[in-house]
Amino acid sequence: MNYPSTFKSLNAGGSKAEPKPHKPCLLLAAIDMIAAGEAASEATSEATREAGGDADAGGGRIAWSQRLRERFRGYFDIVRSEARRDRPNPELPFYHLGSDGFWRPRGASGEQLHKPPRRSDEGAYAEIDAGLLDAIRDEAARQELRAALIQTYFPSKTDEVWAHVKLMDESGRLTKRLLELPGVDDDGAQQIREEAAAYGQDVRTAAFRDAVVPAYDFACAACGLRLMTDDSWLAQACHLIPWSVAHDDDPRNGIALCPNHHWAMDRDLIAPGPDRVWHVSAELDERREGDRRLLELKDAKILGPASGWERFAPREDALAWRVGRLG
Ligand SMILES: [Zn+2]
């Protein structure tokens, strides 16, 4: 199959002059996932090839995940039309791409889907041709596929969409590097910090968030609040020693907090300590309702990182710096 040409003639819906953006947005998101190594299962495609190499029988897997929907939303918000009342419903292209010949939506046990997945159907996935997977993994072919989608469906927004592609690629690369930090020596760590510092702030912010928040399973390390919608979440990645002070995007210089506790930590009202419990400022006054809520945090255990992510727990020096700031 000639994939760039297939991508240009998707059965996208809408009018010929103004096709709907859903399918191209989902494909751009899926390409980003594969490029970042977050999607396709290599084992699946290798096994398929060894079993006879029938391109239609297997290939990559794109999970029906929060991550995919979040990435879809990133593109969708750039190209959506208010006039056309575009709705961000990724389950529709996830299902309807099944009619374009290279994408097969499946349920958790591999059965063919006969309707769009629900948001809670976390086991669902789409299987794509092995040939398409190979094309996406090749940088030149990947750019050709993206260009086919962007020029065909978003001719008036090409600059914005390409800028987002670049942000996704660069932040994906940087996240991977940041996650290597717990396993490298001092020289290696210095090199990664310098690499990070060379990127623009938007890339660093996105990469730091993706390195920190999943390690806490998207929950606040103070109150445990974990709020997620279909394509976004509440918890924020917070630097322990601020970027402006240390230029340090090590995920162990970070912690996930809800906006309230982020605000309180940034104002030195609360701080996580090297003894792995929360400390509170002596300035807090228990006669004030809001202060009382923060005072309740005193000596509470720092929540997280989640099981399996322990190596990303905050560094002792970063925690000590924070506690030292408390009034
Ligand atoms: Zn909180």
Written overview of the protein:
By secondary structure, the protein is mainly alpha-helical. The protein folds into two domains: 3-153, no CATH class; 214-324, no CATH class. The protein has 14 helices and seven strands. The strands form three sheets. The protein has a three-stranded antiparallel beta sheet with strand order 1-3-2. A two-stranded antiparallel ribbon has the order 4-5. α2 (22-35) runs antiparallel to α7 and α8 packs across α10. The longest helix has 22 residues, at 158-179. It starts with a helix and ends with a helix. Residues 42-57 have low confidence and may be disordered. The chain binds zinc ion. Zinc ion (ZN) binds next to α12.
